[in-house]
């Protein structure tokens, strides 16, 4: 079983995740965290570690 399946961790409303490698994911996560604190408390739920 090879890991070639696309990662579907977001709802259909969210854009497809381009980050496939862990490094890319980390970069995306970091950017999300940086923008999360600027969003309202309700939006901070997006940050899932």
Automatic annotation (TrEMBL):
What ranges does the record list as Basic and acidic residues composition bias? 21-33
Which region ranges are annotated with the description Disordered? 1-49
Q: What is this protein called?
A: Uncharacterized protein
């Amino acid at each position: 079983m090879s890991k070639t399946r696309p990662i579907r961790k977001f709802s259909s409303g969210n854009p497809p995740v381009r980050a496939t490698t862990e490094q890319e994911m980390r970069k995306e996560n970091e950017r999300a965290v940086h923008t999360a604190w600027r969003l309202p408390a309700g939006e901070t739920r997006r940050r899932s570690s």
